Amino acid sequence: MNAADAIYPLTPLQLSMLAYGLREQDPNAYQVVAELTISGDERMLERLQSRWAKLVAACPALRTNVVWEDLDEPLQVVLPSVSDRWQPLLDVRDGGEPPWHTTPIPLSAERLWRWQAARRTDDRLSLRFQFHHIILDGWSMSLLIDALLATDEGPLQKLRLAPPFEVVVERLQDPMSAATSAFWRDYLEGVEPVELPVARASSPATVKRLPFALHPSILNGLSTLATALRTTLSTLVHSAWALALMELSGNRRVSFGITGSGRSRHRPPLSAVIGPCIETVPLAPPAWDGERRLKDWLGVFAKGQTEALAHGGYSLTQLGEQADEPMPPGWLSTLVVAHGFTAQLGLETDASVFETLSVTEHSDLPLAVLWVQDDRGLHGSLLLRQDRVEQTTAERLRTWFEQALTQLAAATPYTRLGALDLLSPREHEHLDALEEASVDVDASLIADRVHGHCLRSPAHLAL
User: Fold this and answer.
1) 433 near 424, Cβ under 8 Å?
2) Which of these, 302, 21, 51, 25, lies nearest to 156 by C-alpha position?
3) Which tens digits make up the pLDDT trace of 245-293?
4) N or C: which end of the chain has fewer CB within 10 A?
């Protein structure tokens, strides 16, 4: 602790990662891995290793570790230097996959990252970068890999001149402004937490991945609607998830988390900072109103999303406390993350990112949606903690989410919210059996239809 370039507190995001890792004793929590295949031989590898050493010297986050034992509060310590050595080169020119060293990097390690390389052929290399999310986020990873593989000094010089992560930490220590408190009080008005059915006590404490994939034509339809509404694909994905949560819970106003870069709201923007600036921000879409046009509902949704990201930078507990009726602990149960990594590289490169995480790379919430768009369409996975969420519930949410996206892809700005039908034919059959043929049924929430049936029942008073 005496030989340190800097010592400073953890951000709310880092504190939640540390608390989760210590509480759950899950060594795989928040381990992130990037794999790349590039053209090059051993001389190329030597150049990359030399360039990485310069990045370690330039970026304090790569020399940061975390200490907490016997301290009043956890701290992050920037060391003057750490080993920049890579793992020994593997040789798989005879075929097969590299026997990567996949052991999780413990939070107590002095160096919270690891590089490995393998020779695929005489002129092709595979690289594997593993790090703990407590020191880096996906934005940082992209900047680092871009600088590592660049053919000029520009990206490296940009990182040398960038402010250290300590600047972000200092700004997050500022008390919440009155304007930010007022925003969250108004924004969270009427929000009802979504309670997901809890899994059986015997369910394993592991992560289950439920994949989904939509045809490229669906992505094209969503892009067309986004253009017509002057909004983004992310907003439409978020709205589809909101509709699925409304259908599941029967709540007219729901909330869920999204991730923000944590960089753009700073002045000046801290786009080149290396560190875990990313943050979880609650979204609270407008209340359900089946008669409202998409252009109006999504317009309010998008405006609120922009303002929520601008007023982020605080823990979910702090934000929930700003509501007129403070939100209970764990008031957010789901998270939506735009996932994927594309490096803008000057080399022939195939890049992919995957993670072995406790729930998501950003949070220990019970259920998360990771999504990405590419030439295959819109696809991704729902990640659920099997000990905290029933799988059947997650599967139902996945179906409604896919259906909401499909319905939005075929919609126009003037489509009514109530015209978006998320239910399957079988679900319609079950509900139709409850209702009289004379009842005019719009595509409304299941809870509304069941409630209507109860009111028409002779035993409705008892119900």
Assistant:
1) no
2) 51
3) 999 998 999 999 998 888 876 666 788 999 999 888 999 999 999 999 9
4) N
